[in-house]
Structures are given as C-alpha cells and as structure tokens.
Amino acid sequence: MKLEIIVAVLVVLFTAQFLYVSSTTDAAFGGADGEAEGVIQDIAPDYDPIANPVWEPPSGEIESLLFGFQAAIGALIIGFFMGYYKGKGKKQSND
User: Fold this and answer.
1) pTM for the full predicted model
2) What CA–CA distances, in Å, run from 17 to 12, 13, 29?
3) Among 18, 29, 37, 91, which is least packed, fewest CB within 10 Å?
C-alpha cells in the first residue's frame, strides 16, 4: 500500500510539472532532420538531394505516431525473443 501511494504522488508531481512547463513556455519540439536540412542549406545552398521521400505524413503528429508505432513494434520483437530464449534456458535447466 505504501508503494502505491509513493507512485501516485510521483505521478501527480510529474504531471503537475509537465502541465506547468508546457503552459508557461512556447517551446516546440523539432527533430534533428529539420536542423540538418538548415545546416546543409547554409553550407551548400545549391545542394540537391539524391533521393526524395516516397510519402510524407500529412502532419508532424502523424509522423510522431508512426515513429512511436515503429519503436513499439521493435520493442515487442526484442522482448519476445529475449523472453523466448530466457524461457528456453529455464526449460533446459529443469530437464
């Protein structure tokens, strides 16, 4: 019971801090791709990329969603194989 109270207090504190910071600042998250593109344009203004994207998401939120989905799939695959080999090792040690 004590652990649940501590976790609940920490969640409330982090949520309050997040809401305070996001309401008092006007910061926008920008990825490294946009920064790199600006630096390349400064160094070589006539640079022409050798490849273009096949499809661009309609918004930054969709792009973030797809990136998170990709990360979740990768984590599931890694977790599955780690669990599989751990269970396989336990089964062999019990035989």
Assistant:
1) 0.47
2) 9, 6, 17
3) 29
